[in-house]
Design a protein that fits this description.
The structure holds two protein chains of two kinds. Chain A has eleven helices and no strands. The longest helix of chain A has 44 residues. Chain A starts with a helix and ends in a 5-residue tail after the last helix. Chain B has two domains: 50 residues, Homeodomain-like (Arc Repressor Mutant, subunit A); 149 residues, Tetracycline Repressor, domain 2 (Orthogonal Bundle), CATH 1.10.357.10. Chain B is 77% helix and 0% strand. Chain B is built from ten helices and no strands. Classes of the chains: A mainly alpha, B mainly alpha. Chains A and B meet through helix 1, helix 6, helix 7, helix 9 and helix 10 of A and helix 6, helix 8 and helix 9 of B.
Chain lengths: 214, 206
């Protein structure tokens, strides 16, 4: 049996690969259509039926790949946030001193979402929902962002830029809150990247003031 | 009754009916038709006054908040203690007030972020009145000497509101009550206060 098993095995692998590839392409198509509709209609406004139509497939085909609308949106959010965390970490590498580094991290976020504010807006909407909000909070990428901030604070304590009593956990949390709080200005106030950056710079300074040495 | 009076009367009836229904049934569960029925007006005249259901909710919550801000204006001047303590009392009042209508507030915030054409509803978090109450509190601190006059107060207001929004999310995420939210806020106010207290006083504290 062995000598026939190998070619059959190979065919199977090839078949699976092709099927896996097709599945991946279908998912990508659905995700692209969903991203566009969430941006245009908001989370509540976009229906699975519209998303399927936009992707050129049946609602059944969408449901074969995603359990429901929130599953679909979650996938988009996770993909985006994972890329963003990486961009923030890269931006942090270029920072000089704590304030500059934090500002670079924040700016990476504002630049990332500047071109897709409607999606950011839908994400904020979800984050306030009693049902869906918890899933946003539990995203690893969100936790990684807070960790990235807290690593910068710890490094600054080691360098002697911040005092030993810097209360890193709470301060990182508050810096992250300040980072988030500027999104409504971009979403509702149409603030430019420069305006967001200037505001963030002032916020960072105030939030570090109590822990600065000298 | 003039045309304007009639219009205003309809508006009032719609708002009263909507407030009751939102509070008893919930926002998502209440239809515009149900509001019209309770207000004893036609569905058409509801839409003449308000473009969307969210605009009705916005107005209902806005009126509630006006009551809160009026109260804070009165109470604010009577608060005693350090600026940090007065801020803690103010935010404790916000949380106590808002948790009474927590579901409606959360529904409102989520809905304003969602993308619905035809509405101008905005989240309440950053409106002028709430800012003014906090500004007044800080200004008293400058006079009393525990707020550094060179610190940009608008940025402090901003950071406080950022902390406030985050803390309010705890209500959505962890079903936190007013006490839990106030405690979380107290720590954050303490940290900020170290940043806005005049340097000499911070050293004296250490």
């Amino acid at each position: 049996m062995k000598h026939v098993a190998t070619p059959i095995g190979e065919t199977k692998v090839k078949g699976l690969t092709r099927r896996a590839l097709a599945k991946q392409q279908t998912r990508a198509k659905v995700l692209a259509a969903a991203r566009r509709l969430f941006s245009e209609q908001g989370y509540e406004g976009a229906t699975i039926r519209d998303i399927a139509a936009a992707a050129g497939m049946s609602t059944g085909a969408v449901f074969a790949n995603f359990t429901d609308k929130s599953d679909l949106f979650r996938e988009i959010m996770i993909n985006d946030l994972d890329s963003l965390v990486q961009e923030m970490a890269d931006a942090a590498q270029k920072g000089r001193g704590l304030e500059d580094t934090l500002l670079r991290i924040f700016t990476a976020g504002y630049a990332f979402y500047k071109g897709q504010l409607p999606l950011a807006r839908a994400m904020f909407s979800i984050s306030w929902s009693p049902v869906e909000g918890k899933t946003v909070r539990s995203f690893q990428a969100v936790q990684k962002m807070v960790e990235l901030i807290s690593e910068q604070l710890s490094a600054a304590v080691e360098r002697g830029e911040l005092s030993q009593e810097a209360d890193i956990k709470l301060r990182s949390q508050m810096l992250f809150e300040a980072y988030l709080s500027n999104y409504p200005q971009a979403i509702f106030g149409g603030w430019s990247l420069d305006a967001l950056q200037n505001r963030a710079k002032d916020q960072i300074r105030i939030l570090l003031a109590g822990a600065k040495r000298g | 009754m003039s045309r304007t009076d009639r219009k205003e009367a309809t508006r009032r009836r719609v708002l009263d009916a909507a407030r009751e229904l939102f509070e008893t049934e919930g926002y998502d569960e209440t239809t515009v038709r149900a509001i019209a029925k309770r207000a004893e007006v036609s569905v058409g005249s509801v839409f003449t006054s308000f473009p969307t259901k969210l605009d009705i909710l916005s107005e209902v919550m806005g009126e509630r908040l006006d009551e809160l801000y009026d109260e804070l204006d009165r109470v604010g001047h009577q608060l005693r203690g350090s600026t940090a303590d007065r801020l803690r009392s103010l935010f404790a009042l916000f949380f106590a007030f808002e948790t009474r209508r927590k579901r409606l507030f959360l529904a409102h915030i989520a809905a304003t972020y969602d993308w619905r054409p035809g509405t101008d509803a905005r989240p309440f978090g950053r409106n002028e009145r709430i800012k003014q109450v906090i500004r007044d509190c800080l200004a008293r601190g400058v006079v009393a000497g525990d707020v550094d006059p060179t610190v940009d107060q608008e940025v402090v207001v901003d950071c406080l509101l950022a902390a406030y929004a985050w803390t309010y999310r705890l209500a959505a995420w962890e079903d936190a009550d007013a006490d839990a939210m106030s405690r979380a806020m107290d720590h954050q106010i303490g940290l900020l206060a170290k940043g806005f207290t005049p340097r000499a006083q911070v050293s004296a504290l250490i």
